[in-house]
Amino acid sequence: MASSLFALIDDIATVLDDVALLTKVAAKKTAGVLGDDLALNAQQVSGVKVDRELPVVWAVAKGSFLNKAILVPVALTISAFAPWAVTPLLMVGGAFLCYEGFEKLAHKFLHSRAEDEAREKKLLEALSDSSVDLVAVEKDKIRGAIRTDFILSAEIIAITLGTVQASPFVTQVVVLSGIAIVMTAGVYGLVAGIVKLDDAGLYLSQKPGNSGAARLRRSLGRGIVLTAPWLMKALSVAGTAAMFLVGGGILTHGVPALHHAIEALAARAGSVLGSVTPLLADALVGMLAGALVLGAVTLVQRMRSPKPG
To answer: What pLDDT digit, counting tens, does each position of 93-139 carry?
Structure first.
């Protein structure tokens, strides 16, 4: 009896070790999506009334939990009944990551500055125009953010599924569920902090008092107000770079010949260059794949667009 109990405890400990290890690996692999998710969702919920920013973030977070409540069972079903589909799904997800990253780089060529300025002007006019239904504008933003989150959540779940594909079903359930919960809570907790960062800085910069502590608070507040826009830009840049690294890594691992060629190149490059060669190769593959997918998407869009006259 005692030996059976100890064996059960040992099995549970082994499963927990596997879960912890695989969750860590999956979190590392989904870091590219996480960085882009942060920047994109912070941009999506910006532009609403200040007192409505946190309610909008909470509404999108609930939609994100619902997205993952749909995606996790679908992923587990695929793993159980069609495991052969995991690698193709990962490849599609990796190609989409690369496409998103390259589309950002090519944005200034595909969209004029006048288009961006007109979009921002329209948003500002909507916020200041009393005749505009701000509730409808807010709901539209929430729906758009949840649609975007569904795509990013699908990428996170697909990458995680690829990590745990060879593990027992219980481990898959725990890791996928854990990643879904932690990523959603982490992303939208940070998004809430980011969208309120400038408000916190403004609050500190207006604190009265002549003491050294009061002056320090005001200086800190002004620094936060000045830094907040740059933080958003840094998140966007880091997210884009991570998209190429993660997406390119998925694609190179999905093509064994390419993966072995990169490993051989890294082995010949020496200890210093060899450590960065796989990263550079993943980034290069990611950029090339993104360019190809973007070219194909742009061509299809132009072929489907109605011709004048």
So the answer is: 788 878 888 888 887 666 666 666 666 666 555 555 554 555 666 77
Domain span holding position 121: 24-304
- pLDDT of residue 292 exceeding 80: yes
Is residue 15 one of the residues assigned to a domain? no
pTM of the complete model beyond 0.90: no
35 in any annotated domain: yes
Amino acid at 40: L
> Would 58 be classed as within a structural domain?
yes
The per-residue pLDDT for range 179-191, each reduced to its tens digit, is: 888 888 887 887 7
- In this prediction, residues 81-103 reach a mean pLDDT of 83
pLDDT, tens only, 37-56: 565 566 555 555 666 777 88
Residue at 153 is within a domain:
yes
Question: With contact defined as beta carbons under 8 Å apart, do 175 and 22 qualify?
Answer: yes
Spell out the residues 6+ positions from residue 80 whose beta carbon is closer than 8 angstroms to its own.
169
Residues 6+ positions from 111 with CB-CB distance below 8 Å: none
Measured on CA atoms in the order 100, 105, 106, 109, is the torsion positive or negative? positive
CA distance linking residue 282 with residue 249, whole number of Å: 5
**Per-residue model confidence (pLDDT) at position 11:** 41
